[in-house]
Amino acid sequence: MLKDAFGRVATDLRVSLTDKCNLRCTYCMPPEGLDWLPNAQLLTADEIVRLVRIGVERLGITEVRYTGGEPLLRRELVDIVARTAALAPRPQISLTTNGIGLARLAEPLAAAGLDRVNVSLDTLEPETFKRLAHRDRFADVIEGLGAAERAGLRPVKVNAVLMRDVNDHEAVSLLRFCLDHGYELRFIEQMPLDAQHGWDRATMITADEILDLLSAAFDLSPDDLEERGSAPAERFLVDGGPARVGVIGSVTRPFCGACDRVRLTADGQIRNCLFAREESDLKAALRSGATDDELAARWVAAVAGKRAGHGIDDPSFLQPARPMSAIGG
Fold first, then answer.
1. What range defines the domain where residue 306 resides?
2. Domains in the chain, number
């Protein structure tokens, strides 16, 4: 098992397939983009599948989520999903994406074994989307959401980040949109993971504020029928259910005590926490001929050193050197 000193067991593996992205969302990277990792530094498809196999077969991983950057930019994505679905025991397989290209790939991904998707959508206003993402691709995201639903990648989940005086007035309309289309909405507090290191807690829309905004138009009640457990989202029934909305208060309502996640970056580094400032290199060992047992042992040691929490409230907190696009969601 991937067990840390506090008794938490990692069963949920987040795998970044690339640091590249075709959007430039303001809370993630500057308009001009970033210097991408050279292809030679990225794990190959075979290396990714081998490490995922070790995690599943030897270390108790039961869920695999492919992320980026933007994972739809990875040419071998469908093949990687298919090979992951062929593992025994078969893990649950999901994808976090900005939705651009999903209209074309939803059916092939579903056929390969993808179970569901999370699609980022922060606004329903095309001009606001263009201003936030520095790209005019709103229609592509909406089309991708519809394609995911038709392909059976359910529940289709929508991730939204509210920003003060930018899109916070859209909380209610975003939820109505998702209710109308059968999507499950998750509001996520903005986290200190931008490349510019410009995050300011004072301007962040908190979980409490999000719930206040929604409660002005909907009756929200805790979903008592389902324990939160290690899930990052607190879920609420909307107008008595069955529809639900989730709020992920990573900053103000941290769930570190029940965290079951571990991350593999696109260049082969194990991160035992999204906000970790240390990484453990599996790629170098893998390319030097390490056996599955040796790679598994390195992985176990990396998770064993996980800290009790992300420490954002600690005065000594330092933002990770890598931005979210390079870590993987």
1. 12-327
2. 1
pLDDT digits (tens, 9 = 90+) for 128-172: 999 999 999 999 999 999 999 999 999 999 999 999 999 999 999
The 10s digit of each residue's pLDDT in 87-137 is 999 999 999 999 999 999 999 999 999 999 999 999 999 999 999 999 999
SS3 for the chain, per residue? CCECCCCCECCEEEEECCCCCCCCCCCCCCCCCCCCCCHHHCCCHHHHHHHHHHHHHHHCCCEEEEECCCHHHCCCHHHHHHHHHCCCCCCEEEEEECCCCHHHHHHHHHHHCCCEEEEECCCCCHHHHHHHHCCCCHHHHHHHHHHHHHCCCCCCEEEECCECCCCHHHHHHHHHHHHHHCCEEEEECCCCCCCCCCCCHHHECCHHHHHHHHHCCCCEEECCCCCCCCCCCEEEEECCCCCEEEEECCCCCCCHHHCCEEEECCCCEEECCCCCCCCEECHHHHHCCCCHHHHHHHHHHHHHCCCCCCCCCCCCCCCCCCCHHHHCC
5 found inside a domain = no
For residue 299, being part of any structural domain is answered with yes
